[in-house]
Amino acid sequence: MPDLGTTSGGIAPRHTQRTGLGLQALAGLALVALPVGLLVTLILWPTVRMVTATFLIDGTLSSDRYFAFFNDAYTMANLRYTLEMGLVSAVTALAISFGIALYLRFSAGRIATMIHGLSLFPLFVPSIIISYALVRFLGPNGLFQLMLEQVGFTHYRTPYLTPVGPFLAFVWENIPLPVLVLSAGLSQVSDHAVEAARDLGAKAPRILWEILLPQMRRSLLIAFALIFMGIIGAFTVPYMLGPPAPEMMSVFMQRTLGNLHDPEAAQVQAVVLMVISSIVGGFYIATMVKSSEAAR
Amino acid sequence: MLEIGAITKTYQGTPAVRDASFSVARGELVCLLGPSGCGKSTLLRIISGLTACDSGKISIEGVDMTTTQANRRPTAMVFQSHALWSHMTVAQNVGFGLRVRGLPKAEIAAKTAAVLDLVGLAAFAKRLPAELSGGQAQRVALARCLVVEPKVLLMDEPFSALDAHLRKGLREELKALQGRLDLTTIFVTHDQEEAMELADRIVVMQGGRVEQVGPPGALYQNPSTLGVAQFIGAMNTCTTNLRHGAVDWYGVTLRMHLPDGEVALLCRPEDLHPDAKGTAARVTRVIDLGPVTKVTLITGTGDLLTWTCPRDQAPDLGRVLTLLPRRLHAFRSGALMGLMEAPLPAQAQGATA
Predict the structure, then answer these.
(1) Quick check: bond before A246 cis, omega within 30?
(2) CATH code: domain of residue A121
(3) What confidence tens digit (pLDDT) does each residue in A162-178 have?
(4) Residue-number span of the structural domain to which A84 is assigned
(5) Model's pTM, two decimal places?
(6) For the purposes of burial, counting CB atoms within 10 Å of the CB of A249, is it exposed (0-12), middle (13-18) or buried (19 or more)?
(7) Looking at CA atoms only, how far is residue B46 from chain A in angstroms?
(8) Residues of A with CB below 8 A from B148's CB?
(9) B12 contacts chain A (CB < 8 A)
(10) Residue A41, in any domain of the structure
(11) Residue A34 domain-assigned?
(12) Contact flag B79-A196 (C-beta cutoff 8 Å)
């Protein structure tokens, strides 16, 4: 008879658990229903409509608009400029951030705390303020030029309205996020892992190349994807600081829509940019999934 | 081989290592033993060069290494957390030190295979650290150090994160390997059993100081300070006053030719023996440890005594025994004053100091 007691005792909690799980699952679905609904209604559905619309000319399927996009030299120059700006700015910001994160990982004290604070400061400054500040500082007759002239240097050429302008702004603006991501990644590398390499005779460059960088690969890829996607879609900085030509795609898109009154062409530009972002985004998600699997 | 001279290290005004000195002969295995926070790991890191000392001198084979960087010292360290690089295979982990030294690929492969064979992990060369057990990971960490043929092998509590059974097995493997390679080794541990089993000599540290250096048996039999006596092995401690050559030991007066004053009398559990003239104590607990039995007793003065006796002499619970010490270590202000062999009750004669 004790077996019967054990059996019934075993069934009861399982039954309750199943009901509990069902309720939990329903509650979970209810919680995500609103954001998922908003995502579908406000983003996915308009996106699908827009992508479909770019392939429809007078009700018939056509890839003419894409043909026109990829055969227009100015448009392609803008796309190339956007991707190059994204790549160069993201790599530069990443390199600087990695240096800062390394310093913060292996240093302590007031200076490290100060540098940490300073590196995060751009996170709280809106793009438009950064752009204005750079115009006032680096622009013609800006503070930087005046300072150089004070020491006798009179050949200063302002980066304002050249590709260097948005590059500087993008780098400055995109330091905090990778510092946070890379600091989190570096905190996973134990002191002993570094010390073991030192103990076996390795110097700093080899430790960086063979020990730290391989273990930071995922964090670097995640940070790169986030910065790159942010830059290629940015509007304020290239609008305020960038050259009139070539233009970054966001500015070009706005001008195509607002000045040239050609919404179909602007939609094609948006779709191309979205596809590029999606590839990098997919890459980001794949890296994140691998990270979570590795953590498990 | 290795000379440690008056090493001192202070962290923000708190001394971690104070005036530590000892030497290690070639092929010797020396254990740094002490409780947590006694400075043993700090001292090991100073020897490795990973931590700089404030003052003192370290020399290896007569060469002053005090200010030499860690990556230029002929030492290699096994860490408590094994510190394997998770992105490298076992073979890559082991071969790292050889790659740093710029050896040809074929030689690296041959040496790596040989050392992996030595630690019994030849079949695991292509595995990642995450695919190893704790014991295997620690053996890879050891192989990674052995492959660079260090003059001094440093081990910082390498087995402390492993279970007792595995720890014992690895200890025996290490001892055999160290003997076979004639490798000068410094092994940090807080586990006295581990130190007693492994070491040729033990350096006992407390509060950043080296308290005593000696072979395990000598430290056990003749501790020179109260700290060492209480840290190594079990002791029955009786703090009492010595007056006119007599001392009260749990209600029994013993003769003792020592200056008057407060004294701590320590006696090993196995040094107690039943004697009609001894102190009466009632058995409160009997633990069968296999070859011996550990008996806890309470004396008439309310103090607890531990007695280790042969299994066949184990008393019943509640029985009252009379016990006397065969050997008593007397300490005053932490320092050894004398060792009494077979101290006798006051009415008898023949006590020695």
Answers:
(1) yes
(2) 1.10.3720.10
(3) 899 999 999 999 999 99
(4) 64-295
(5) 0.76
(6) buried
(7) 12
(8) 200-201
(9) no
(10) no
(11) no
(12) yes
